[in-house]
Design goal:
The protein has 360 residues and is α/β, with parallel strands linked by helices. Among the domains are: 83 residues, 3-Layer(aba) Sandwich (Rossmann fold), CATH 3.40.50; 93 residues, 4-hydroxy-3-methylbut-2-enyl diphosphate reductase, catalytic domain (Cobalt-precorrin-4 Transmethylase, domain 1). A 4-stranded parallel sheet has the order 1-12-10-11, with helices on both faces. The protein is flat. The termini are close together. Bound molecules: iron/sulfur cluster (SF4). The site of iron/sulfur cluster (SF4) has 15 residues, from helix 1, helix 4 and helix 7.
Length: 360
């Protein structure tokens, strides 16, 4: 079985910076985050351990902390001002690309265009985008276009994590269904989302099974899942390593691996290593051992740990053997793989991991 790791996957810079900001602020004083900082339970647990609590409160009532933080999804100016007016110190974790979508919509409204947002109704980012414009319309699918009030000029932006092809198709449908109106469209889908969608399409060519790592309520993760499913692949959406099952890879010829923008890179690499090990187990007779361990051990996690240790021992022995026999087996392939995967990107372990995948 061949394992493909998407070229772009996991944490984006917007989420990375928001997490760093929340952890820094929580270390200084009690911090309350206004909503889910990102839609990922692993990240949220990590923040809670560092003292950043979350609230779903929409208005500034009694809170334990004097310091609150807007999430990476952004917020309307009205909401921001409401918290400031109530005496809270408001830290802003809004991603610059979400802020840019706000600015584009605001400029359109200022020029007299009717505000339209293509996105998921009720999502924090969409609520933030529309929050300052009474009557703004949210479009998620073709049927929603019927609800658009009659207007001579529609100004359209999109939620940053929507698939661009769907956004463009909806804009075309608006144009066709309202031929008498003008439609101005700003593409506000963020580059990290576009990169992850494109990287996913690349790996689909050689995969019949795809594992997507990320929060179940994360919009961009769900879009990756839907894209793989629409392409007819077997898709498994997981949040944690414990959810992986070796039987998913039985009979599989190629497995693709990716993760949404709110998934910690370290976390997804760990998961991907597990997939590689499980695949190796399925590939060789070791699968039997893993299944036996999963049945006999107290938990799947313990079984995997025992299996890892056993397998690592084997790999070390195998590497030593390969080293001794390298004149016979042409070991430069491994070195070339290291270089091609660009260890200068700073994630040495990822490069090691990619090289490891290539061995199987
Ligand atoms: S997904 Fe895009 S818009 Fe959202 S935080 Fe990441 S970079 Fe920013």
């Amino acid at each position: 079985m061949k394992i493909q790791l998407a070229e772009h996957y996991a944490l984006c810079f917007g989420v990375r910076d928001a997490i760093a900001q929340a952890e820094r602020l929580a270390a200084q004083a009690p911090l309350t985050i206004l909503g889910e900082l990102v839609h990922n339970p692993v990240v949220r647990e990590r923040l809670a351990r560092r003292g950043a609590r979350e609230t779903s409160q929409v208005s500034p009532d009694s809170l334990g902390a004097a310091q609150v933080m807007i999430t990476a999804h952004g917020a309307s100016d009205a909401k921001r001002e409401a918290w400031r007016g109530a005496g809270f110190a408001v830290a802003d974790g809004t991603c610059p690309l979400v802020r840019s979508a706000h600015e584009k919509l605001r400029a359109l409204v200022r020029q007299g265009w009717f505000p339209v947002v293509i996105g998921q109704p009720g999502h924090a980012e969409v609520l933030g985008l529309t929050g300052d414009f009474e009557g703004a319309c949210v479009i998620e699918k073709d049927a929603d276009i019927e609800r658009l009030p009659q207007h001579a000029r529609y100004g359209v932006v999109s939620q940053t994590t929507q698939p661009l092809d769907r956004v463009v198709s909806l804009v075309e449908t608006i144009r066709r269904s309202r031929p008498e109106s003008e439609v101005a469209f700003h593409d506000t889908v963020c580059q990290p989302t576009k990169n992850r969608q494109a990287a996913m399409r690349q790996i689909l060519a050689e995969c019949d099974t795809v594992v997507v790592v990320g929060g179940r309520n994360s919009n961009n993760t769900r879009q990756l899942v839907e894209a793989a499913r629409a392409a007819g692949r077997e898709v498994f959406h997981i949040e944690r390593a414990e959810e992986l099952r070796s039987e998913w890879f039985r009979g599989c010829r190629g497995a693709g691996l990716t993760a949404g923008t709110s998934t910690l890179t370290g976390h997804s690499v760990t998961l991907l290593c597990e997939v590689a090990f499980i695949a190796y187990a399925g590939f060789a007779a070791n699968r039997r051992l893993l299944l036996l361990l999963e049945r006999r051990c107290a938990s799947v996690a313990v079984a995997r740990r025992v299996f890892w240790s056993w397998l690592c021992g084997n790999l070390i022995l195998g590497a030593q053997l390969a080293w001794v026999l390298r004149p016979l087996i042409g070991s430069p392939r491994l070195a070339v793989q290291f270089l091609r995967d660009d260890p200068l990107r700073g994630n040495f372990y990822e490069s090691v991991f990619r090289a490891f995948l290539h061995l199987f």
